[in-house]
Amino acid sequence: MSLRPDLIALADLVEPRSRVLDIGCGEGVLLAHLESEKHCDARGLEISHDGVQKGVERGLSIVQGNADTDLMNYPNDGFDQVILSQTLQATQNPRRVLEELLRIAPKVVISVPNFGHWRIRLSLLLTGKMPVTPHLPARWYDTPNIHLCTICDLAQLVGDVGARIEKLVVLDGVGRARIQKNKSLSWANLTAAQAVFLISRA
Known about the structure:
Layout: H1 5-12, E1 19-23, H2 29-38, E2 41-46, H3 49-57, E3 61-64, E4 81-85, H4 94-104, E5 107-113, H5 118-127, H6 151-160, E6 163-171, E7 177-179, H7 186-191, E8 194-201
Parallel strand pairs: 1-2, 1-4, 2-3, 4-5
Antiparallel strand pairs: 5-8, 6-7, 6-8
């Protein structure tokens, strides 16, 4: 099964042979890739019973759980890296979730849709309605996303919890990835449809 562009960017930030926990792993597509290609000890946490069942049927180590309530069950430094793909914006308390991730592992990889993208800004300006895009496909009343953020918002949250950004990979509307090298996030915030952050404890 092929990986989405953001999952490819996530996988590139994972160290080979590391202990990895993937929160919101779905059916375990990324887990399977990390096990086979990077020889990681990869585990998953998924809220959907169907996702857990399909992943377990493929021989993956996935348990059912909720990022908002079940991360406290994992020990300090239980993993080398934790992954949170397209999930932070759907949690009840993103700050607490990020703090828990940094407790569980010294490095965290997070991907988010960027609500600061110029197409979203223009759509909101011209229509006066919450935008629907390929990366935010649900209407406002159907979306699982309850804390939409921009790249700049997440960067600020990282600082607020006392962590630091080691690397930022931004993806355009068709999934082309590039490493954001300069310290100013304004251009990335305007042009990126998605972003992948490698975050570590300060």
